[in-house]
């Protein structure tokens, strides 16, 4: 059985790690400065994080330039897999991010606008490098719609259909972000995660809603997630990754300690 992964997420704006109030609702003026990305990456590396995810939340040319500098700095200091996303619209963008030190590239809004980007990226760099990040909002008891532009714009896609399409095009991993759960600290959307994990042949990463260690366990156990991603609870020091991994190990999950 493959080990379950613990993944801190770092939102980067102008070369700094920031955190908004809630998913898709924070304007740049409402962002809280969390710290230097390289120092945070080193901290999480020492705590035992399995991977790190960086998102360029401004998705601008200048923002991506800052993100590339962050990736280069972190890659020189840390030796765990790095994923980066935000504002990546072309195969050349993917190439730049990978050359800067990322192991995987996360696609979201650009993939919705141009699904062929998934296929082109997978063909050129391999499916293992392409992560499809999906921002989902519940619209009925067992139905979720895909949103773009940081959760602000509803797309025509239903979550299951879009996830399957992404895998068919070559995505090697799916990150499912719950817009409803994010920022609530009330736990992941277990039904949403399980729906995708049970139908897809690639790893599914749970994102949005973690507030306590039990939430991570439930996402892995009841949500059938392959990995769990979180930001605020790690940045604020409410949960220490080493302690979380020990807790999950005692619960019987296959964890790298």
From TrEMBL:
It comes from the Bacteria. SUPFAM superfamilies: Ribulose-phoshate binding barrel. GO terms for cellular component: cytoplasm. The keyword Cytoplasm applies. The active site is at 11, 135. Pfam families: His_biosynth. Its EC number is 4.3.2.10. One of its GO terms (biological process) is L-histidine biosynthetic process. It is found in: Cytoplasm. It catalyses: 5-[(5-phospho-1-deoxy-D-ribulos-1-ylimino)methylamino]-1-(5-phospho-beta-D-ribosyl)imidazole-4-carboxamide + L-glutamine = D-erythro-1-(imidazol-4-yl)glycerol 3-phosphate + 5-amino-1-(5-phospho-beta-D-ribosyl)imidazole-4-carboxamide + L-glutamate + H(+). Keywords: Amino-acid biosynthesis, Cytoplasm, Histidine biosynthesis, Lyase. GO terms for molecular function: imidazoleglycerol-phosphate synthase activity; lyase activity. IGPS catalyzes the conversion of PRFAR and glutamine to IGP, AICAR and glutamate. The HisF subunit catalyzes the cyclization activity that produces IGP and AICAR from PRFAR using the ammonia provided by the HisH subunit. Belongs to the HisA/HisF family. Heterodimer of HisH and HisF. PANTHER family: IMIDAZOLE GLYCEROL PHOSPHATE SYNTHASE HISHF (PTHR21235:SF2), IMIDAZOLE GLYCEROL PHOSPHATE SYNTHASE SUBUNIT HISF/H IGP SYNTHASE SUBUNIT HISF/H (PTHR21235). NCBIfam families: hisF. This is Imidazole glycerol phosphate synthase subunit HisF. It comes from Methylacidiphilum caldifontis. The lineage of its organism: Bacteria, Pseudomonadati, Verrucomicrobiota, Methylacidiphilae, Methylacidiphilales.
């Amino acid at each position: 059985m493959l080990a379950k992964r613990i993944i801190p997420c770092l939102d980067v704006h102008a070369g700094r790690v920031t955190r908004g109030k809630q998913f898709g609702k924070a304007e740049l003026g409402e962002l809280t400065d969390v710290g230097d990305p390289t120092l945070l990456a080193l901290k999480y590396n020492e705590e035992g994080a399995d991977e790190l995810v960086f998102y360029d939340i401004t998705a601008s040319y200048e923002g991506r330039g800052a993100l590339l500098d962050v990736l280069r700095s972190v890659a020189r200091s840390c030796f765990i897999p790095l994923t980066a996303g935000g504002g990546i619209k072309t195969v050349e963008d993917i190439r730049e991010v990978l050359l800067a030190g990322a192991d995987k590239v996360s696609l979201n809004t650009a993939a919705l606008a141009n699904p062929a980007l998934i296929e082109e990226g997978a063909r050129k760099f391999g499916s293992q490098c392409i992560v499809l990040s999906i921002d989902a909002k519940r619209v009925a008891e067992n139905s979720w719609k895909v949103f773009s532009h940081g959760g602000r714009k509803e797309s025509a896609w239903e979550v299951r259909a879009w996830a399957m399409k992404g895998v068919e095009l070559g995505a090697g991993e799916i990150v499912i972000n719950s817009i409803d759960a994010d920022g609530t600290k009330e736990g992941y959307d277990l039904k949403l995660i399980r729906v995708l994990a049970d139908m897809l042949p690639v790893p599914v990463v749970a994102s949005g809603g973690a507030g306590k260690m039990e939430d991570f366990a439930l996402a892995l156990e009841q949500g059938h997630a392959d990995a769990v991603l979180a930001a605020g609870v790690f940045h604020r020091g409410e949960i220490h990754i080493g302690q979380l991994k020990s807790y999950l190990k005692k619960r019987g999950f296959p964890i790298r300690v």
